[in-house]
Amino acid sequence: MNAQAASTGHVARITAITSGKGGVGKTFVSANLAAAMARQGLRVLVLDADLGLANLDVVLNLYPKITLHDVFTGKHQLEEAIIPAPGGFSVLLAGSGMVEYSRLTPEVRDQLVDVIRQIRPKYDRILLDTGAGISDVVLYTVSLADEVLVVATPEPTSLTDAYATIKVIATTQGRRDLRLLVNQVSKVGEGRTIRGQLQQVVDRYVTPGLEAPVKLAFLGEIPSDPAVRQAVQRRQLLLDCFPGSPAAQGIVAAATRLAD
């Protein structure tokens, strides 16, 4: 799909933002990264690719009348489902609680590909806010991206699941370069330390037997910050309500690296 899209001229770079487990702040990160990149002058769209348990609308305090589900079922055109979000970017929201999207059917596969084909020429960056874990729906969504960003926290369960996700993506999709963003760190430098620990485990248990080593690029760290909880409770972007907070500064730094 990427080669076909590239032949049409300008196309957005697609980043899948995923995680091994829920609750690590993946959707919060996706929305605020999009806002930070939009402030850099990029045309950004976030596609809520957590098709069964969508919550991007909650984070952004949006009440969509038309969702991806309506596009998939032919009730509305794709253009009608793309709406502006606070922060200067666009969103394509999924309907929540749709049991039919809990597994990957040929129809869902084809519809996802078609949606991305249509939106890709219109933006500079597309962020796919995927579901958590390694279900077939999540892995297929990740496979449509140019690059993968894994979000993790320092908690042992998060790191264990992040490793499992990295292993599956590397071995099933042939990816050798992934990015890591560590959320909720308690001290400066903890994220880079965690990246080093994960890289050691990947070097020992994943890379052997592959034709090339799997490399984790450190995108950045976001400190544990009470401003995050306040922003989430307000259903506002952190960059809008607490732009000078440590967590907001971490987001902006990560977005700058991602945009480069």
UniProtKB/TrEMBL annotation:
InterPro entries for this protein: CobQ/CobB/MinD/ParA_Nub-bd_dom, FlhG, MinD_FleN, P-loop_NTPase, ParA/MinD_ATPase
Source superkingdom: Bacteria
Protein name as it appears in the record: MinD/ParA family protein
Annotated ranges, domain CobQ/CobB/MinD/ParA nucleotide binding: 16-236
A Pfam family annotated for this UniProt entry: CbiA
PANTHER family according to UniProt: CELLULOSE BIOSYNTHESIS PROTEIN BCSQ-RELATED (PTHR43384:SF4), SEPTUM SITE-DETERMINING PROTEIN MIND HOMOLOG, CHLOROPLASTIC-RELATED (PTHR43384)
Keyword Lipid metabolism among UniProt keywords: no
Keywords for the protein's UniProt record, in alphabetical order: ATP-binding, Nucleotide-binding
Biological classification of the source: Bacteria, Pseudomonadati, Pseudomonadota, Betaproteobacteria, Burkholderiales
Gene3D superfamilies found in the cross-reference section: P-loop containing nucleotide triphosphate hydrolases
Sections of the chain in a coiled coil: none
